[in-house]
Amino acid sequence: MHQLGIVTNCWKCDLDQGVPLEELLVQAVEYGLVAIELRQTALGGFESVDDFLPDVQRLGRLTEQFPGCCFDYAMSLSFLSGEITEAADRVSLGRDAAVAVAGTGVPHLRLVDLVSSEEQVTACESATVRELAELTRAMDQAGGVLSVENCRQPWDDLFRVVRRTREELGSVGEKLKICFDPANFRLSEEAGDSLQALAQLQVSDLSMVHLKQVKEAVVLQDLVSGEVDWAAQLSQLHQLQYQGPFLFEMAPGPDWRPRLEAARLFYQQHCY
After folding, report:
1. Is the Cβ–Cβ distance between 145 and 107 less than 8 Å?
2. What distance in Å separates the CA atoms of residue 14 and residue 12, rounded to the nearest whole number?
3. Is the model's pLDDT at 57 over the cut of 80?
4. What pairing do the DSSP bridges indicate for beta strands 214-215 and 218-219?
5. 51, 76, 89, 202: which has the highest count of C-beta atoms within 10 A?
6. 148 has which bridge partners?
7. Which letter does DSSP use for residue 217 in this model?
8. Residue 201 belongs to what domain range?
9. For the chain, what is the domain count?
10. In CATH, what number is assigned to the domain containing residue 229?
């Protein structure tokens, strides 16, 4: 049975209204969600207000409060155009947060690049490979892994960077993984085809899969049938023998509980 989980930006409306993250986590556990992605900008009192820096010590205590959960820390970073070096202090804090929230599990830092252009990716590729390799080694030394999420950039560019970085890493190349988000392919015409991308992957490449739906490049608040053919996606993941976690990441909004229940039912109806 796959682990089901949630990305905390699903709760951003509640968090912005002052609902404590711990209260939302209690409800997530009641829904049977165990894989929790602690997403920068959606952590309430667990990060600074202005620049969203994680409160590492406080985050670390979540593992004691919720021993049955598996946490990772996720941050937005233009890692495809040099920001790993430019934001070294922030990256270091993110790494510390990933280690703190792992408890006795495997530390997991996840990055997503929302803004780097195709031109920037190409111009910075060699530097990106070096920086990703260095950060992956740092996570490996902490007993953990680094994963990068596909976003608006062309899939072929991201996957080429990942392959080159793994070659650079040699024996620890397996510690760099991909967070696969089929819906993100629909956010940009340049991103590519999600099923074709998935066909290029081995099961060992994947750290997690995000569950959401889009319409005309806008993420929906509900997980429903639409532009992402989830039956096809899940069937292909089954052929890969993927056994990792699936995390709900619908757009935030009021009344998330009935929408989460409906999303879970949608997943169960379409899963293999």
Report:
1. yes
2. 5
3. yes
4. antiparallel
5. 76
6. 111, 178
7. T
8. 4-270
9. 1
10. 3.20.20.150
